[in-house]
């Protein structure tokens, strides 16, 4: 179930406390620094300013609908290796948009690109999306 709050909330253990119901004094700026999001952003920020982030990514991931275009653009730009770990997953059939291919064509395209440019290939049997019902 999703609950919409008009103001912020605080998490105390497993209890969600609406901002207007929280009795103690709160320094919002200090509380923000205690969040999981803050710690992730701070550890990946290459600037000295948390108000103007310059994020360094550990890796990139895309599925076959996007990796086809990314790889074609990388090749056209002259890139020889992916500059950071790049995970290529398979859950669609995107090459069929240009006519007459099958999923195995997409998968072979992704595998050969991962080998050529240093990517991480996730075989189609390991990429399954489960539908989410609300």
Automatic annotation (TrEMBL):
GO terms for cellular component: cytosol. One of its GO terms (biological process) is tricarboxylic acid cycle. This is Aconitase. InterPro entries: Aconitase/IPM_isomerase, Aconitase_4Fe-4S_dom. GO terms for molecular function: 4 iron, 4 sulfur cluster binding; aconitate hydratase activity.
């Amino acid at each position: 179930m999703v609950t919409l709050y008009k103001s912020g909330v605080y998490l105390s253990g497993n209890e969600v406390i609406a901002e207007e119901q929280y009795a103690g004094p709160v320094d919002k700026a200090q509380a923000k620094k205690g969040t999981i999001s803050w710690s992730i952003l701070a550890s990946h920020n290459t600037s000295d300013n948390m108000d103007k982030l310059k994020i360094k990514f550990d890796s990139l991931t895309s599925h076959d609908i996007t990796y086809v275009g990314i790889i074609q653009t990388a090749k056209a730009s002259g890139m020889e290796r992916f500059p950071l770990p790049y995970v290529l997953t398979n859950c669609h059939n995107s090459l069929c948009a240009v006519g007459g291919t099958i999923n195995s064509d997409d998968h072979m395209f992704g595998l050969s690109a991962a080998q050529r440019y240093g990517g991480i290939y996730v075989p189609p049997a390991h990429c399954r999306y489960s539908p989410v019902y609300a």
